[in-house]
Structure formats: structure tokens, C-alpha cells
Amino acid sequence: MPTTLDWSHSDPDSWANYPVMLATQRGLTVLGADHSVRPGLAERWERSRDAQGREVYVFHLRQDVSWSDGAPLVARDFVVGWRRALRGRERGEMADLEGAAEALALQDRMASEADIVAALEKVGVEAVDSHTLRVTLAHPRSYFLARVANVYIFYPAPSADLEGRSVEEVRDYFDRPRDGRPLALGPYRVESWDRAGERVRLVYNPRSAFPPPLAEGESPVPVITLMKSEIGPALYERGRVDFVFVDSAAALRVKRPEDLQREPLLSTYYLAFNTERAPLDRPEVRRALSRALDREALVSGLLPAARPSHVLLPPELPGAASSEEAARLPHFEPERAKTELAGVPGMERPLRLVYRSGDNFVPEVAIAERIVAQLARVGVQVVLEARSDFSAEIARRTAQGPRAYDLYLRRLGGDYAHPNTFFTLFERSGNHQTGWETQGGGEPMGRFEQLLEAADGEADEAKARSLYTLAQEVLVGEQAVIAPVYHPDRYFRARDTLRGLDVDPFNFLALRTLRLSAPVLDAKRAEGAP
Prior knowledge:
The protein is of the alpha+beta class.
């Protein structure tokens, strides 16, 4: 269930809001099936650099796009939306914009309202005219176009509805959907939001410039009810709901329904090392442990299909490693690993492997148990610990200073289709909890961040890709901060009478192309079904 309908302000649990936001709103760009950037609300754009080295985009908006009340989309809607986002709960996500750093700093210092508003007016988002938007970034960013396609705080806001309203009026606008508000651009708008009953009701938006592609005999789905339920699978079996996630990897080993579907995610499941704690404070030890892992065997038989991997970037991602580049990273070499680990001081004590407790679509328990068995074959003892307070536990430090764990298992999902989204977690400011910023006096991480900065600012895709490849080699190869295990998939069940109901590569329910065959639609109306 969403935690907010205010896509500009959002919140730290933004992942929960994506299904509704993606169904009801749109960005300047969209991602194609091959994850390439394509026109969205903008029909075209120009990209350049000014005399100060800043990156400037001029977006030309489509003139056939209107909000769900019929009001045309205008460039001012982006100005209002992005300025609101700079005051929202995820405002740090807007830091690439020229002038954003000053506006964010003023808010952190609790400056006066007048000073904050003045700073926001200088931020690099400008309506040149009603359908031309100029965006200035403080530094070139190769990921920007992919990011504005998916990260919904970059979506426009209906300026005519929001400007001039008080804070309380705006909050009420989003908290209590009614009278066709909040407005939408996508094929659906929110009609009601029952927090207590944990239900969201979406209705078709006939004014959307992005209708689902209809074949002969198909119609748009007029009403969608999203609900949270502990008995979702049972409701699906009874025909009460038409889609359900399969959230139990263990259940898939028992029963694999005929209507089971699979979506490969832009995601990586990995083993992380506590680089501050001996004996894992030595990169050669971490590399040897990575070489001890047989990824194929770790996931074999646990899922209907699996994509074992020893690289960070998923193969579907633009800029993923070639087979030659992947071969340079630590991969399964058990005899070499055994030799390298023999006699290493500190390896005589058991290593503590922490993972998140509870069943989910990643078979964590089985993978953790297999890691224990595989490392035992190279003379390394590992003890397992499932934690419901996983995030707090991997951050917990001992009295001596280093974090308490030795190894942990975690899934990293991409936010947008660009290598950058897989690296930000491991920067100095990222929540990786590995301590690798202390390695080599900070030089390896500094070099890693320099490679990312250069790649992020490189306009030439081939040159950017080579820089990201080098960054991956530092993180996964030279320093072996993590050992990738596999790229997860998401499983779900959907009625074959529904067309286009899917899960996207970012692990969100995709409703943008949902449609229904006419006979089924008539039958549902006759039954009075939602």
C-alpha cells in the first residue's frame, strides 16, 4: 500500500508508492523494453554544456498531453513539482540540479522562509514558455535521462491546482482523493484511498495521452482495486483477485502453478564482507572467499529459474560487463581459494553470517546454508544468524570499534536503468555498512568514487561504460567488498484474461498497459465485480 499520494514530497519508504505513481503519472522520458531512454512527456530534447561546464537540457513538451481534468500539461508544472520536491522528504534526490545544494543547505540550517524561497527560485528548472523546459545540472550526469523516467519525484505537479494553496490545503488535496483529484497524466487516476482497509481504487483516465495499446476485442480496465492482504494467494485461488505476487521462494519448491509468470529484475543478491574485522580486513582473503563460491550450486533447484552471477551489474542493464570483463572478476576457483586461505591468521575462528529473517521471494535460508557448506570445503567455518532487525544488526559496532558481523546477505535493486544506480550504495555516503572506506587509508574508495564521477559526467556512452567497468573491478575484483551471488527474478500469478498486467524490472506492479477482453469485461459488469 502507498504511504502517500504526493509524488513530489514522497517519503523514505518511497518503494511502496511506485505502483500507484507509475500508473497515474509520467516523466519527461520513459524506458523502452530494452531499457533505452525514449521520449515521454517530452517529445524531444537538446543536451549541451555551458561556459561554466554545467549540463543544460532543453525539453520540448508534447502538446497533446493533458491532466485528467482536461487542463494542458505546461512547463510550469515541472517548476512547481521540482521546487516542491526540493522541500519534500526525499529532497536530497534533487541535488544534481544547479542551485539545489544552496537550497538544501538553507533548509538544513533552518533558514528563514524568505531565504529558502529565494534560493528555490534560482534552482536550475525554468519554464522558457508553456511547452519548453530548461533544466540545468550543476555537473554533467550521464544517468539523468534514465533517472527522470523512473524516479517519480521528477514528475510534474498540477501547478494550477497547487499554487496559491496553504500547506494544509495541499496536504488535504493528496490525503483525501475526491472530485477527480489528485489529477493524473497516466491511464489511471486515484478515486479513493482507504487507509484503514488498505485499499486503493483506481479508475481509468480517458484523457490520458498514454492509453494502453488495445488490440481488437480489448478494452481498458475501467476500475482497479489494489489491496493488501495476508491471504492473497487464497483469494486468487477463489477467483476473488486477478493478480498476486508469489512472495515465498519456499512455496515455489512445493507447487509451481501453471499460470506462474516470471520477471527478471534489475537486481543483484550479494554476500558482503566486514572489511574492518580480521581476517576479512585483507582484500586477498575476501577475493579467495569469493572464489570459493559456486554460484550455480548456490541457487540450483531453489527456484523455477535462476541467474547465478559473480558480477554486480545485471546482464540486461545497458553497460553491463562483457564476458571478457566478467572473467577478470573473482569467480569459482575452489582449489585456488583453498590454497590462498590456508594458514591465514584468524581464519580458525567461525565467521558470523547475518541475513534477514522471514520468507520472501529470495531463498535466503537455503542460500545461506549452502554458503556455509561451500566455505567449509575450503576450511572456513561459518555460523548463521537470521535477524528481524537486520539493518540495525549490520550497523551495530563492537566495543572495539568494527561492526559486529563478518558476512551478510542482501539484495540490491536498481531504481533506474543505468549502472550508476548499482554503485551509489557503495560510495562513502552509501548505506553499505562494509567499512571499506577505511581500506588502504581510503585510497581504493577514493579511486572508486573518482571513476564514478568521471563516468557520471561522460557524455560518450562507450567511454562512460568503460569507466563503470573499472569501478566494478575495484569494488568486486580488487577490493572484493562484495561477492555477487545471483540476479533475482520476481514471480507472480495473473489471469490470462487480463492483458498487459505485469511486474516491471524494478520490482513494481506495472499497470500502464493493462487491458481486458470485451467478453470478460461484460461478464464482470454483470456480476457487479470490481
